[in-house]
Specification:
single chain, mainly beta, Thrombin, subunit H, Immunoglobulin-like, six-stranded antiparallel beta barrel, six-stranded antiparallel sheet, 24 strands, globular
Length: about 375
């Protein structure tokens, strides 16, 4: 074998071309870093024991609302948006985290994801026959953020006074049990009860985000001790009295009134069908918002002639797990005007613009922040 053949063989072992040689060199650098860094810890990802690198994340974008971390993993470790991670550090104790975003690296020597610490464990009944609690009684870890500051209530009495509603934005892993949480489901968050107004499992694949509105607690059906709303159904009260007496709570404001199926109507009008009362409306506007630009979003419906008409709503909600990437310039009964902040760090961030009508129906439009050009 000649000198040139030996040289080519040696170079080929390092890679067939310049890119491959540089990539292998970079992957080797990452391997050395991974094996020697001080922030590499054992953890459990979806129940599997793995090793991961945890990096602190700047608090500049979320106003210190959460202690976010970057999660760095080898390429052969399975981890996705929505995965749960248990991390046990001696000086802090055991904690649970939820994966929110996955970065698609231009040099794929490793994985990099963003995680947020679980701040609530939610429980609800999935089987009333045996009072079975979700996730085999353990409940599901959630990231909950107060959304009241981003709620843009619309009042047209006076000078467009804002109505502040107690709202929460809730994020859960998208799985078979969480997917069954429907509109109107009541959940304990802390010591208060909230009702689901809207659910979205499309904006962030792997996660479901819920918009919740504060509801009234009811000791007759809510279990305060276990933190489970709607723990008892109304039929359960009949068995509480030993004599078999029906102890279902009564409401004097409604129990003495005629039933709907008795067709008692003092006005003589025929009740309208639900399809006549509900209009199929939506939010229209640009779903890719550029840095520094202004946009107007509208609520509309299509009339019988196929023409879009303005649709009045009672409330606008701007939802994001971090600081909003835009400012609110104006809002009316059917329009919301925003201006995207001119900050390149916001590129790729996703936000939701939601609207709620008088019937309690919530619609949303997911927008992605993109570069100016």
């Amino acid at each position: 074998m000649g000198y040139s053949d030996a040289y080519l063989r040696r170079m080929k072992a390092l890679g067939d071309n310049t890119y491959e040689r540089n990539y292998r060199r970079k992957a080797h650098e990452y391997k050395i870093y991974s094996e020697n860094t001080l922030n590499r810890f054992p953890c459990y990802i979806d129940g599997r024991k793995e090793y991961a690198i945890f990096q602190d994340h700047s608090q500049a974008n979320n106003k210190d609302l959460s202690d976010d971390k970057y999660l760095i993993l080898d390429n052969d470790v399975e981890c996705n948006v929505g995965s749960y991670l248990q991390w046990d550090v001696p000086q802090w104790g055991e904690s649970e985290w939820l994966v929110f975003t996955e970065e698609h690296k231009t040099i794929p020597t490793h994985q990099q994801l963003k995680i947020k610490e679980v701040n609530q464990r939610l429980k609800w009944i999935v089987d009333y026959d045996g009072h079975k609690v979700c996730n085999n009684g353990k409940g599901w870890g959630a990231y909950v953020q107060n959304q009241t500051l981003y709620t843009l209530g619309v009042s047209f009495a006076g000078n467009y006074t804002s109505l502040v509603n107690a709202k929460m934005m809730l994020y859960l892993q998208d799985n078979e049990e969480t997917r069954k949480l429907g509109i109107g489901t009541r959940l304990f968050i802390g010591s208060n009860v909230y009702k689901i107004e809207f659910a979205d499992n499309i904006s962030r694949v792997g996660l479901i985000n819920f918009l919740l509105d504060e509801d009234t607690k009811n000791p007759e059906i809510d279990n305060y001790e276990l933190g489970i709303a709607d723990y008892w159904q109304k039929d359960d009260y009949k068995d509480k009295d030993k004599g078999g007496k029906d102890t279902t709570p009564t409401n004097p404001d409604t129990d003495d009134k005629p039933k709907d199926d008795e067709n008692h109507d003092n006005t003589g009008d025929t009740p309208k069908e639900p399809s006549q009362l509900q209009i199929d409306w939506k939010i229209v506007g640009e779903d890719r918002a550029k840095l520094g630009r202004s946009y107007v979003y509208k609520t509309v419906y299509t009339d019988e002639q196929g023409v879009e008409q303005p649709y009045n709503v009672t409330e606008w909600v701007a939802a994001d797990i971090e600081d909003l990437p835009f400012t609110i310039q104006d809002r009316t009964e059917n329009t919301l005007a925003i201006r995207v902040k001119k900050d390149r760090r916001l590129v790729g961030q996703k936000s939701n613009i939601m609207a709620k009508d008088a019937n309690g129906v919530v619609k949303n439009l997911a927008i992605t922040i993109v570069n100016m050009f």
